[in-house]
Automatic annotation (TrEMBL):
Source superkingdom: Bacteria
Name of the molecule in the record: Uncharacterized protein
Matching NCBIfam families: kinase_SiaB (NF038264), SiaB_fam_kinase (NF038262)
InterPro entries: DUF6272
């Protein structure tokens, strides 16, 4: 077995101000436990309550979206894995999340995120209200709806994302929100 130097890993995480780092299968219970740990850390750091709630909300929305998507796709435990990182940077808190997606779904998400990134705060608010008024089709897959718009509204800079082809018509979708 190949060993990992945990001290080196810890030093790198500390140098990059990473508050939370997770990689693996994600369940609703795990989302809650990690979220509670994140909230507690933000409170002990005396983060402004509104900022702490926005960081927590974005973390929850991104991780729940990953979990719901994997369930809808019927993915195995390996494919339903998520990679989540929360880091404190000069420009604010960065919440990053990524997962395996069907390539076509990933392209749709990238297009949606790019469209939202081009909107100013007023346009995002209007888009949010428009989405609220639209009837929800229970048969359609959720995604790229209110939650993503809400994340965009909470972000201090436009969302960014990347899509990396992993083969077999699957890709790894990464989303970055800065709060």
């Amino acid at each position: 077995m190949h060993s990992i130097n945990l001290l080196t890993l810890r030093q790198e995480l500390n140098e990059k101000n990473i508050l939370l780092c997770f990689n693996g299968p994600i369940s609703s219970g795990l989302i809650q436990e990690l979220g509670d740990a994140l909230k507690n850390h933000l409170q002990t750091e005396d983060t402004a309550p509104n900022l702490a709630m926005d960081v927590f909300g974005v973390y929850v929305e991104l991780t729940q979206n990953i979990r719901h998507y994997a369930q809808q796709q019927g993915y195995s435990e390996v494919l339903s894995s998520a990679t989540v990182v929360v880091a404190q940077q000069e420009e604010g808190y960065q919440v990053m999340a990524g997962n395996i997606v069907e390539h076509d779904d990933g392209e749709k998400m990238v297009n949606r995120i790019q469209a939202l990134a081009e909107m100013d705060k007023a346009a995002l608010k209007a888009e949010f209200k428009k989405q609220l008024r639209e009837p929800r089709n229970k048969k359609s897959a959720s995604g790229a709806g209110l939650g993503l718009i809400d994340i965009s509204r909470k972000s201090s800079i436009p969302l960014s994302c990347s899509l990396t082809d992993t083969g077999k018509r699957k890709s790894f979708l990464s989303i970055l929100a800065t709060i």
